[in-house]
Amino acid sequence: MKTALLDGVTPAKIDKQIIGNLLLDVASVADVRQEKLLIGVRNEAGQIYRLIGAPKANNYTNAVEELEDLGLVDELQDTEDPQEGCDAIFSAP
User: Fold this and answer.
1) Please, is 72 exposed, middle or buried when counting C-beta atoms within 10 Å of its C-beta (0-12, 13-18, 19+)?
2) Buried-most residue among 16, 18, 21, 63 (CB within 10 A)?
3) What are the pLDDT digits (tens) for 66-81?
4) What beta strand segments (E) does 1-93 contain?
5) Tell me, what's the pLDDT at 93?
6) Could you report the per-residue pLDDT of 46-65, keeping only the tens digit for each?
7) pTM (two decimals)
8) Long-range contacts from 45-48, C-beta under 8 angstroms, 24+ separation
9) pLDDT of 34
């Protein structure tokens, strides 16, 4: 899976734990957006600061489970429709 920080947006305090729990390759935002499934992560200000791109459904499912294990909540868990270009958007409750 690939990940990128969005320019000019402050990372969440939990970001080091996210990076530690998921096996992610740092890539450009453009490269991450080319992946099949996208996960956004919001900071405390409510801005998406990190994108995670998953090439396959099982990678996506594993990433979602890891983020949930960290106590993050998927805002889109009750909808099938992507929002803000993401299939899932995680933030701290």
Assistant:
1) buried
2) 63
3) 999 999 999 999 998 9
4) 2-5, 25-26, 37-42, 48-54, 73-74, 88-91
5) 81
6) 999 999 999 999 999 999 99
7) 0.95
8) 45/10, 46/91, 47/9, 47/10, 48/6, 48/9, 48/84, 48/86, 48/89
9) 97
Report the SS3 class of residue 79.
coil
Element (H, E) at 60: helix 57-69
Instruction: Quote the mean pLDDT of the chain.
Output: 96
Residue 79 and residue 93 in contact, taking contact as beta carbons nearer than 8 Å? no
- 37-58 as b/e: b if 16+ CB within 10 A: bbbbbbbeeeebbbbbbbeeee
**CA torsion 12→6→23→18, rounded to 10°?**
10
